Amino acid sequence: MKKYYVTVNGTRYEVEVEEVKGDFEGVQMQAAEPEASKQEVSQQETKKETPKAAPKSVPAGGTKINAPMPGTIVGVNVKEGDKISKGDLLFVLEAMKMENEIVSPVDGTIASVQVSKGQSVNTEDLMAVIE
Prior knowledge:
With about 130 residues, the chain is mainly beta. It has a domain at about 65-130: CATH 2.40.50.100. Helix content is about 0%, strand content about 40%. It is built from no helices and 10 strands. It has strands spanning about 1-10, 10-15, 65, 70-75, 85, 90-95, 100-105, 110-115, 120, 125-130. Strands 3-10-8-5 form a 4-stranded antiparallel β-sheet, with no helix packed on it. The chain has a 4-stranded antiparallel β-sheet with strand order 7-6-4-9, with no helix packed on it. It has a two-stranded antiparallel ribbon with strand order 1-2. The relative contact order is 0.22. The mean pLDDT is about 80.
């Protein structure tokens, strides 16, 4: 028997495999009776949720930039008063372990930024306003 350690989805398992030699023609397989499995249990650290910032005043009009999906803001590349061009990177939103770049759809000036790094957002939450 050979002993292997296999990690699946972050969980480590000890596996014993029996080496079989010879001709496999005509071999019939039978399910083995399950043996008691070893499980290691560890206390997981509770994830602390980042509190949402209080809503800031939003200028009337302008182009609103809303979150396209729920996630966490991992990058804020603009601040109020910045002049931007269409296609400029505004924010980086991490969702489902992927980083999504939020770019400007228009030329203009950042009138307000409603999110900060580490903040969680939901779909359609206001992120910024461009005038």
